[in-house]
Amino acid sequence: MAENTSAPLDMEKAPRLDSIGHPQEAMIKHANDADEAMKAFEGYEGESLVLDEATSKKLLRKIDWHLMPLLCVIYGLNFLDKTTLSYASIMGIQKDLNLAGDDYQWLGSLFYFGYIAWEYPTNRLLQRLPLAKYSSFCIIMWGLVLSCFAAVTNYQGAIAIRFFLGVFESAWYTKNEQGTRTGIWFSFNGFAQIFGGLVAYGISTGTAEHGSSIAPWKIVFLFTGLLTASIGVIFLFVMPDNQLNARWLTKNERRLAIERVRINQQGIGNKNFKAYQLKEALTDPLAWAFVFYALVADIPNGGITNFFSQLIVSFGYTSQQSLLYGAPGGVVEIVTLIGCGYFGDRLQNRILVSTSGLILAIIGTLLIAALPLTNNGGRLAGYYLYQGSATGFVALLSLISTNVAGYTKKTTVAAMYLIAYCVGNIIGPQTFRPKDAPHYTPAIITIVVCLCAALADLVFIWWYCRRQNKQKAAVRADPSYTKLENQEWLDLTDRENPEFTYTL
Description:
This protein is mostly helical. It is built from 18 helices and two strands. The protein has a two-stranded antiparallel sheet. Helix 5 packs antiparallel against helix 8 (216-238) and helix 11 (285-314) packs across helix 12 (319-325). The two termini are 24 Å apart.
């Protein structure tokens, strides 16, 4: 059971922590602006809140039931929306918009310029505004803007739409619960790939047989965009901002829901910008290791996401077959993401377990590069194995939630990570040059090199977090160290809080 028994805050006796984990005055200086979670305990001072295991499990099931289905659908639609361009690439968009040379490459990249332009502003808005309400606005706008692609008649219009798509896209669980659930959320990218491939195939064959008043690729954009906007409206009315305004929790359950995540040493949010946390984010080696991974891992992602339909065609299949044969890759993504998320939490080694997906992806990419061009089935199998590559990215995204504390720091590191993700996805389509079609050998070689660099970075992150945990254990063992009352809710960063431990 969990019980809040920490000593009261005494400014004379309280511990102090510097950037490498030794006591000093910094922690006390930053302890005056507490987390939103403190509001749940106002008026209950001195009362002991006990949370037994049975109640915690019952509450977890209730949270899962209300949050997971909608979050999974949103994640799936997010991926589906971004792959519509790949489906459209073999459904007539290049001919209809008179794309020539590297026009399609830039069409794939321009989305991420909009993403970069709005990434940090949207993270600041997420800190200042109600989380669920602002997110639903972004989801609705994303869907409506995506559907506007059906009205595009030239390359310039397509570029404008892709840019604004990027503009509009952008803690409820304990550390040991986050990896599995993040894996489940992102596994819906795989479901979306299966669903999207079947939808695109159905539209392509249906319009070929019966005709249509608008181009097939425009129907794909209308369908996915309007579906996303509709789900965004549901999100607006169903999703709470945090535990404090979850209508499906009783007042006591809200306190218990916050109490059960006390172990995270992070709280649930703080609306005030803290300059020292911004500075710490920009000087933290772990943050930059996250950034490096997002950059090198998403160069392959940017290329494959926009060119996978054309890549499958290069294996010797027709355009319609490529829409259908791309779907099984989603199964590999589902299995690897859920499997790595589950075993990462169970073995308490989320980082090293995630390397298995990267190793599969490296093997798959080598098969595409090394097998004879006549071996269509073997090269297609290599593409399927590549779909395991998402495990590392998803593991690190969950670690930003788990291993970065201090709300300003967390939103800053998340923005840095996603900006690097955007840069990688901008570079990725540029590696698939028209002159290298249909086999794209330089792009395949680039993918292998990037995946190997990403694998090495994951090993470094695991080593660094393990080293930091040993340093923090030494601080806690110091006889002069005293834990503060409600230290978990003081909105301290991961580096300044001795009680914070990094998930491996």
